[in-house]
Amino acid sequence: MEKLTTYFTHVKEEIRKVIFPTKVQVRQAFVAVFIVVTVISIFLALVDMLMSAIVSMAIGN
Length: 61
Known about the structure:
Layout: H1 2-17, H2 23-59
């Protein structure tokens, strides 16, 4: 039981050291991820359309 108590004491100490992001930082990270995912999705859609057109021309459809 002593090991468990020591473990939770150490957990509390470590949690106090954590620096949690502010609302502004979370919002900025969300916007950045959203923009990157959108740009990559559009790029992949364009590559897919291009490759599809090339394959269609190659097989004659």
